[in-house]
Design a protein that fits this description.
Helices cover about 40% and strands about 15% of the residues. With about 525 residues, it is α/β, with parallel strands linked by helices. The protein has three domains: about 1-245, 2-enoyl-CoA Hydratase, Chain A, domain 1, CATH 3.90.226; about 270-430 and about 470-500, 2-enoyl-CoA Hydratase, Chain A, domain 1, CATH 3.90.226.10; about 435-470, no CATH class. Strands 10, 11, 12, 13, 14, 15, 16 and 17 form an eight-stranded mixed beta sheet that branches. Strands 1-2-3-4-5-7-9 form a seven-stranded mixed beta sheet, sandwiched between helices. It is elongated. About 45% of the residues are buried.
């Protein structure tokens, strides 16, 4: 009896040792030589020390459809749950040292089990992707396996936060799972994503292009918008994931975690009174406003390298997480183009999904003009942002810092589309269009008949500003709740969100709306 028990324990120890060894010492060494951590090393860095509980360690595949390819430890993925700063999260980490981290039936089953449990438990899902793609030896079973994961991505959307880290290759159908998650991280030196690789591109288009140029981290962070964050290496990437998690609630029923940064709620910043240039065409850095008003000046920008004319990210006011959207005057004068509209719309929808209040800082001269934008779908993309704000039921507070012209004024969380509170700085300009163009239309007869048309235009321009553009006109109409001193912006925002904390919105009964995708 004792001997049998000893053999059983020995067998368990051997199986666990095999699983922990991954693809073996040589493949682990090769992984390190590429500047990459192993699947288990990544999990150890991500989770609080000693908190990881592994699931499916001994699971193996049934053998490929094209013949039994053998049994692989954990089938190329490590799955389980643990904590980040004491809060439960679920994680899967693909193991490139085991058959290149390729995805087969058992591999997918392990990921799906973790995702299902995350939704049931109400905890975030973090995927560490490093895979050669579908396991060819398993044929159509590997395609079915991807479909099972995609389906769960959609079912979990808006229920628990989903975070993807692309820390190695991610090609073909594999790219769609990270693309459907809420936030995608990429490692600059080792990761790439594309639907069709350089060889296929060369065959079809006769164009030669490298992996990085086609689908590297820089490309997706600045051009395609697929990557929300880019880190220099695995360690910094995982550090940034932990930082993001600290801003987010665990699920759509819980509030985001509080963090008291010992920043007085009534703190004032007199420098804001002098931030906006007197000359309307001069730019300034909206980042100064953001870092001034948020707790401790801390701000986690999302999509920092993409559509830089609009800023999106997370910060805190009075210890509570807020999502912030702001036009960046220093880039394209803060105008809205196709990419900026889509970027902000997706961020607004995420915040609404997880009950994160929204601050909108407005300095927008309008939508970007030109055939490139019109043909690129600025109408459709601009409508996405309009739809996202109108649909959002979280507390929404707007501050008009300077320009708010035309349809862009309406789109940027005005009271007309459901914004709860709208403040304006004394420097705000709210009008159908810019003063110069409007004056040329409204006073065209006087200007045309004047002895000095340029002098008359300047005179009428000032007249138009005084009668139509300043924020006090909108305040008299009730479109602005108050014109505030810039130095008091932080205090007024915190107070507004305190009042709106128990906000309840009554929505019409429907399955879902039809956002103009």
């Amino acid at each position: 009896m004792a001997t049998g028990e000893t053999k059983t324990i020995s067998a368990l120890e051997r199986l666990r040792d095999e699983a922990l060894a991954g693809g073996g010492a040589k493949r682990v060494e090769a992984q390190h030589a590429r500047g990459k951590l192993t699947a288990r090393e990544r999990i150890q860095l991500l989770l609080d020390e000693g908190s990881f509980e592994e699931m499916g360690m001994l699971k193996v595949g049934r053998g490929g459809a094209l013949g039994n390819e053998g049994e692989y430890p954990g089938d190329g993925v490590v799955t389980g749950h643990g904590t980040v700063d004491g809060r439960e999260v679920f994680v899967f980490s693909q193991d490139f040292t085991v058959i290149g981290g390729s995805l087969g039936e058992a591999h997918s089953q392990k990921i799906c089990e973790v995702m299902d449990m995350a939704v049931r438990a109400g905890s975030p899902i973090i995927g560490l992707n490093d895979s050669g793609g579908a396991r060819i030896q398993e044929g159509v079973d590997s395609l079915a396996a991807y479909g099972e994961i995609f389906h769960r991505n959609v079912r979990a959307s808006g229920v628990v936060p989903q975070i993807s880290c692309v820390m190695g290759p991610c090609a073909g159908g594999a790219v769609y799972s990270p693309a459907m998650t809420d936030f995608t991280f990429m490692v600059a030196s080792n990761s790439f994503m594309f639907v069709t690789g350089p060889d296929v591109v060369k065959t079809v288009t006769h164009q030669e292009i490298g992996f990085d140029e086609l689908g590297g981290a820089r490309v997706h962070a600045t051009k395609s918008g697929v990557a929300h964050f880019v880190a220099a290496n695995d360690i910094l990437c995982i550090r940034d994931v932990r930082k993001l998690i600290n801003y987010l609630p665990s699920n759509n029923r819980q509030p985001a975690p509080m963090l008291d940064l010992r920043d007085p709620e009534d703190r004032v910043d007199p420098a804001l009174d002098h931030l906006v240039p007197l000359v309307p065409t001069e730019s300034y850095d909206m980042g100064i406003v953001i870092h001034s008003i948020l707790d401790g000046g801390e701000f986690l920008e999302v999509h920092a390298g993409f559509a830089r004319n609009i800023i999106c990210g997370f910060g805190r006011l009075g210890g509570k997480t807020i999502g912030l959207v702001a036009n960046q005057s220093a880039v394209l004068a803060g105008s809205l183009d196709c990419d900026a509209s889509a970027k902000a719309a997706r961020f607004v929808r995420f915040c609404d999904d997880f009950n994160i209040p929204l601050v909108t800082l407005v300095d927008v001269p309008g939508f970007m003009p030109g055939p490139e934008q019109e043909h690129g779908g600025i109408i459709r993309h601009g409508a996405k942002l309009l739809y996202a704000y109108s649909e959002a039921t979280v507390p929404r507070v707007t501050v008009i810092v300077r320009k708010a012209f035309g349809g862009a004024y309406v789109v940027m969380n005005s009271k007309h589309i459901g914004g709860d509170v709208c403040y304006a700085w004394p420097t705000a300009e709210i009008a159908v269009m810019g003063p110069k163009g409007a004056a040329e239309i409204v006073y065209r007869k006087e200007i045309a008949s004047a002895k000095d048309p340029e002098a008359m235009l300047e005179e009428k321009l000032e007249e138009y500003r005084e009668q139509y553009v300043n924020p006090f006109i909108a305040a008299r109409r009730g479109y602005i709740d108050d014109v505030i001193f810039p130095r008091h912006t932080r205090r007024r925002l915190i107070r507004a969100f305190q009042v709106l904390e128990k906000k309840k919105a009554v929505e019409p009964e429907r399955k879902h709306g039809n956002i103009p995708l």
